[in-house]
Write a structure and sequence with these properties.
- There is one protein chain.
- This protein is α/β, with parallel strands linked by helices.
- About 30% of the residues lie in helices and about 25% in strands.
- α4 (about 170-185) packs parallel to α5.
Length: about 260
């Protein structure tokens, strides 16, 4: 009986030795630079060497000196980077007459405060020291002594810097005040200056020369004022015989005579 031959086993493959990985060298230069930068920053942040020693002013009124004394006392001697600019700016931005406040400081101990105040284009009748600027913001400024177009609000509209909002578009009122100042200054009666009346509905009127000009909405204000200027140049006695002029549609002005009004 023949013996079965055993299958030939394949010889095992030789194992390849893994090459040893090369160790990565750490580049200590950038690491040291970052560490140095952090240390320098922390030193500047806390060091008395960077303490604020002087405060330069730009556009700040003399009346702010008392407020400035309190600010100077609060920031002088403190490291510059520890002084939050908003801390200083908020001292002034809570006043409606201040348009912007910008406080800057550096690590050499020098600080600078820049203030910009609102410029009035009209004054609110019946509210002391209350004005309107060109952007339609109502603000108070007890120091303002200039003469501006007057804005009269209907009695139902309460005069309050906080509450003046809602249906009244004060930006349009400011634009109208600017147009009146530019276009009608030469023909305005100096003894009876033009008064802008703002109605509860948002409508606009001009009270002038013992007469009334009804402008309606704030649409086409430049065209309406230009038309009014043309009419007054050709008929300077318009309101001697007429009580009102309707310019809601500037292409079709209408007048109401005093006789007809008295009926």
């Amino acid at each position: 009986m023949d013996k079965k031959s055993k299958p030939v086993q394949p010889s095992p493959k030789p194992r390849l030795r893994a090459r040893p990985r090369a160790r990565r060298r750490i580049n200590w230069g950038p690491v040291l630079l970052v560490a140095l930068g952090v240390n320098v920053f922390l030193a500047c942040f806390n060091s008395k060497i960077t303490a604020i020693r002087s405060l330069n002013l730009d556009g700040v009124r003399q009346s702010e000196r008392q407020r400035l004394a309190r600010i100077t006392e609060a920031i002088k001697g403190r490291p510059a980077l520890k002084v939050d600019p908003r801390f200083v700016e908020n001292f002034f931005m809570n006043e409606s007459r201040v348009k912007s406040a910008d406080f800057r400081r550096n690590i050499f101990g020098v600080a600078r405060l820049m203030l910009e105040y609102r410029e009035p284009v009209a004054a609110i009748v019946g509210s002391k020291s209350t004005y309107l600027d060109s952007t339609g913001v109502v603000f108070t400024d007890p120091e303002e002594k200039g003469t501006f177009p007057q804005i009269r609000l209907e009695p139902k509209i309460r005069v309050s810097v906080v509450a003046l909002s809602g249906v009244i578009n004060y930006k349009s009122v400011a634009r109208l005040a600017d147009l009146v100042h530019q276009q009608l200054a030469d023909i305005e009666d100096k003894e009876n200056p033009i008064e802008i009346e703002v109605q509860e509905t948002g409508g606009l009127c001009l009270n002038m020369n013992n007469g009334t000009v009804d402008l309606g909405t704030s649409e086409q204000l430049p065209e309406k004022i230009e038309k009014l200027k043309q009419i007054l140049q050709t008929k300077p006695d318009l309101f001697e015989v007429n009580s009102s002029l309707n310019l809601m549609v500037p292409e079709n002005p209408q007048v109401v005579s005093r006789k007809k009004e008295n009926g």
